[in-house]
Every structure is written in structure tokens, then in C-alpha cells.
Amino acid sequence: MRFSEIYERALNLKGGEPAMRALLPRVPEAGELAARPDDRYLSELTRCVFKAGFVWRVIENKWPDFEAAFDGFVPLYWQQVSPDVLEDLARDERIVRNMQKIRTVPENARMIVDAAREYGSFGQFLEQWPRDDQAGLLLWLKRNGARLGGNSAQYFLRRVGWDGFILSSDVVTALRRADLLDASPGSKKALMQAQAAFNDWHEETGLPYCHLSRVLSFTVDS
Fold this sequence. Notes:
The chain is mainly α. It is built from 15 helices and no strands. The chain has helices at residues 3-14, 17-21, 32-35, 38-51, 56-69, 75-78, 83-89, 99-102, 104-119, 122-128, 134-144, 152-160, 169-177, 188-205, 209-218.
């Protein structure tokens, strides 16, 4: 299916070009990912992990307290933090006291530190990853991080400005309707099928992947 058809359907459902464009995510300029400090990446990873399966609004409202409880999410500290600190956090009423998710912080901190040692910073690592291989990046994050399967890593990448798609329920519905996806959304096969579709549409239109993804979601009248 050509993306021009998808675009026209989205325009009709969203009330025209200006209304639809106002809903599209901002695309950061070159170098913004590399300029973001590593502690901000650990913060966003943790926020997405805690949001998974929970009420997002609650996490957002408590986030300043999370920042205080985790002392700004400095990866070099959290990669080797004492188990006693994690136990204390599991009793800290400022945050959501989920020990399994608290334990992801040192694991994801180690992932960030290891990538930074090789590339200079975690932002530089993300900056150099090809946009036509988001599937590979998602699999890397799942393999090297903690609780970064499902959509958590996809939302993390969107929040920090990496240009990619999100396999939301509407995007999955639209891909299936176009006979471009027949696998379980959380599987490697589904990621590869989605990547192929978005790569074709990017080549056709030149649009950012995040815009392609959001426009596709608009075609589902939910």
C-alpha cells in the first residue's frame, strides 16, 4: 500500500492538513541526542519502565519525587549501587515501591555506561544507529537492558527524540489491515515486518519515521 493513500485517509479523519500536522511529534535537530546527558537517558528509561502496566498520570505526577529519590539518575553511581540502597528505595513513599522495577535502574545504568565507554556517551550511541534499523536497536535494548521489551523501549526512543515508529494498538491494527503484519506485536518477526513497511514508506515520502507512525495511527477511527 502506498503511503499517499494512508495520508489521505488520515487527513479526512483528522479534519485536514493543519489539524493533523498539529498532532505530529517534533523531530529533533541533528546532534540533540548526543547533547543529552547520560543521566537524562537513565531517567527516561526508568520513567518508561515504571509506566508500563501502570497509570501513566500517576508516574508523571510523582516524577519530581522519583528524581529526588534516585539522586538525579547518575549512571556511574547506579551501575554499582549497594543492594541496601535498593532496599531503602523499596520503602520510600516518594516513589512507586515496586522492587522489580527499582532493580532495573542499576541494570540499565550499566547498559548506558557500557555504551558510553565505546561511543563517548549514550546519546552518541543512539545518534549513530541507522534509522532504517529501529528493529535492531529495539532488540539491542531488550538484550542489554532490563524490562525493555514490549513497547517500553519504543516509547523511550520517542520521548528522547530518536526518530522511530511505535507499535501502538492503532498502528498494529492499521498494519494488519494493510496485510503488512501477521505476527505477534512483541515478536522479532513483527518488528522486522513493521520495519520493512516503514522503510518503504520513508523511501516513498521522505517523511520522518515518527510522522509515518503517527499518521498511520490516525487512519484507525477509534
